[in-house]
Amino acid sequence: MKLTVRIWRQAGPATEGRLVSYPVDDVSPDMSFLEMLDVLNQELIANGEEPVAFDHDCREGICGSCGVVINGQAHGPERTTSCQLHMRSFEDGDVVDVEPWRAQGFPVIKDLVVDRSALDRIVQAGGYVSAPTGSAPDAHATPVPKPDADLAFDNATCIGCGACVAACPNGSATLFTAAKVTHLSLLPQGQPERAQRVLDMVDTMDAEGFGGCTNTGECVAACPKGIPFASIANLNREFRKASRSGRP
Q1: Distance between CA atoms of 105 and 210, rounded to whole angstroms?
Q2: Residue 95: helix, strand or coil by DSSP?
Q3: Cβ neighbours of residue 168 under 8 Å, at least 6 residues apart?
Q4: Alpha-carbon distance 222 to 224, whole Å?
Q5: How many CB atoms within 10 Å of residue 190?
Q6: Which of 220, 221, 239 is nearest to 77 (CA)?
Q7: Residues 50-108: pLDDT tens digits?
Q8: pLDDT tens digits, one per residue of 203-218
Q9: β-strands 73-74, 108-110: how paired?
């Protein structure tokens, strides 16, 4: 396959960026999208040019660090992570645009690399259990209803890639926050800090500059792990309930 890849190049946060076109030849349909970028970077380095900066780590669809916008879609045309997207999803001769996540909460560092630490700070605001729960209980000592356990697991699969933010026309992190809040609100260990957790995490989400949710559903369509849309409704319920109980 031969492709023309138009990639966002930006030297740093304070500089202007632009799309730069590069021809990429001999692309195997079995390559992952990141492997294609590796091939391009090898050519750029061999020609004495600056390679394209992009984030990656596990390359197994687990860590969430590889996210880019491909032809206007977060992670590209398939519902998976960029590292698990294969070049057979494209046709010979295609022009492929590659851009970083676009959101106020994700400032560009260089080229395709953005600062996603705002998501970490949302989790640090309350997405954990710190209340003493004693030693590990015996198996099945605290029954959890099967529907609750299944829904908690569905939300726990969030890898924090930020595709929901990138896909949202408002740049909202509501689905991400909802997944973290819903996961813990369904489990016994999450009950002692339940109200304060949602208040603190939503406050931090707003303070980080993410937009508001208007229920367009683009976040759910882009999520590679299938976080359910109902989690956003659950976040709203949890927040209203906690707000009525009064802030400490």
Answers
A1: 5
A2: strand
A3: 103, 174, 175, 211, 213, 216, 218, 219
A4: 6
A5: 20
A6: 221
A7: 999 999 999 999 999 999 999 999 999 999 999 999 999 999 999 999 999 999 999 99
A8: 999 999 999 999 999 9
A9: unpaired
